[in-house]
Amino acid sequence: MKARFLALFIIPVTIIASCTREKPEVPEDNPEVVTEPADSVWHITIQASKGADTKALYLDTSGGKDVLNAYWKAGEKVKVYNGSSLLGTLDVTPGSGDYPTTATLSGIVSISGLAQGNQLTLLIPRETWNYTGQVGTLESLQSNYDYATATVTINNIETSTNTVSTTAATFNNQQSVYRFAFKKDNADFSIRDFSILSAGNRIVSATTLGGTPTLGGFTVTPASATNAPLFVAICNTGTTDDTYNFIITGSDDALYMATKDIPARVLDVPGKFISAKNINATKSDFAPVDGTTDTAL
Question: Which domain holds residue 104?
Fold first, then answer.
């Protein structure tokens, strides 16, 4: 716990001038020490838990099919907001076990103007809520794109110790994680990047803390051309059937097209792991006038 702030106010020495030239006043030996309440510095500790599909991630391949599991990791950070105002950042102390599903969040926040009963919003893993710039790896999703939120209520504000207590936090994931595997002529297909769009225009590229989304596709760019499956975090605003359309740049620098129907059963709630295998790509038919597609636009 940080010590409370002390501010020293030294009573000034004043020389009073008059016709009789009075002697200067003697300063006090012990200047007054005033303790200022540190209104902007409050210590907060929150007990956090989450469902099986919420932050962070690891791929369990030991069973009959791959399962994306979740746990808390040391070193993670949780942002605390009042509305859209950032109040502070909390450190994560995971619970026991190799893959803990509970954690203690602690840190310093500014709660000026807040009172008992007010609600705070918690966000992980980072302050910028944006799905663009993905590279297709689970590691990048863990650190940058696996957003989860929770709402807590202030139970008590203890001014004598500058501590705040809240209700426990239950985090909910805001997107699902997809594994896309592309094929060409039923064979593995090496790609440089792909853009993804929703036929229903329901894919979120970014969102505000208040939940206002920017809809539209985004591009996933691996570090180098690859034929390995790519992992992508996607927030879809609908719960009915949708179709994802892909524009793919192959390792041959030609453009390819692909589609994948997404059933409603995987869109009912966020936080799922969805494996979309064998997405067959065909070369784009946007070609020069000579009819070839080797240099398709």
Answer: 41-174
